[in-house]
Amino acid sequence: MIGFDLFFAKKTVKMIQRVQTIFLLLVVIAMGITVGTPLWEQVDTGSGTGDSWSLTAFMLTNFDSAGKEIQSSSKWYLAALATFAGLLALISIFQYKNRARQMMLNMINSLVMVGLVATVFFDYQWN
Q: Which is nearest to 61 in space by CA: 47, 73, 49?
């Protein structure tokens, strides 16, 4: 029984060490960074007001030159998309026994990440 457990453990470790696993781990890390850090910041120096904007995965905030918050709006859906993409990548790592399912999850994850980038871009354009 011990020999079977060691064989299973060696096979699991070997399969998790494939090259796509490294890329999927990078996706998980990148989505975590996306949720935890500002996505975009802008300081308006041209108009002389000194207003600034900051977009995080949870909130779009407008500050005046003194750093006081003027307005803010919730952007929870950016955090939800980034978290979902990270979870899909993490789930996909452990689907190494079913290659077709792993590829399907990765294709869905690619669409989710494209949706995240498009949402950030269009959110910037309309605000």
A: 73
